[in-house]
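Bug #77: duplicate submission created two jobs. Keeping one. Sequence:
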Amino acid sequence: MLSQRKTNPLMLNPKKLSLRARQSNGVRKMEGTNRRIILKTLAAIPLAATFGLVISPLLRYMRPTLKPLDVFGPSDQPGPEEDVAFKDTDFPTEWTCLEFMFKQKYVEYNPEGKEVREIPGFIVKLPSGDVVAYSRICPHLGCVFNWVPKPEDCAKGYNFKPQGPVFACPCHLSVYDIAQNGKVVSGPAPRPPRKFDLKKEGDSYKIIGLEAGSIA
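Kept job's structure:
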C-alpha cells in the first residue's frame, strides 16, 4: 500500500513563488505611488489657491473689467462717456471744420469704477466728401493745436505756407496737412495726430472712440 505524502508548502515551485513575490511587490509599489500622488495633490491645492489670489489682481490690473470675477475675460476698452454726433447738414461745404469735446471713459479701481478724460477734437469735411475727425492734442508735447483754414495765416503765424487748410500747433509750430491724412509738413511733431473712429448711421456721424494709443 502506497503511503500518501503531504505536500510541504515550502516545497512549492520556486518559479511560482517568485511570480507571487513580484506581484506582491508590484501591488505595494502601486499603493505607494498612489499615496504619493494623493499627498502631492493635497499639498498643491493651497499653493494653487495662493497663486490664484496673487495673479487675479495682476490680471485685472493689466486687463481691467467692471465684471466681477471675470479674471480671464476680455478687458473693457476705453469708450465714450456720452454720445458725440453730427449730421450731414452740419457740413454745408467742403472744409467745414467743427470742434467738439470727447469724453473718454476708462475702467479704474476707484469708488466710481471709472476715469473720464476730456479730449478736444476737430471734425472736418474734405473736398472728397469724406468726413474725418482728429484729436487736437499735438503728438509733440501735448499742446492743443488750431484749425488754420487760410494758407496766408499759417505763413504769418507758423512760418510755413501750405497749399490749403491745416492744423497748426502754436507751441512749437508743427503743421499737419489734413488733405494728406494729417501728415506732418512742418515742425518737430513725430507723427500725425490721432484720429477718432467714426460710425456713419444714416445722415449722422457718430464718434465712437479714439485711435489706439495714448491721447496725444
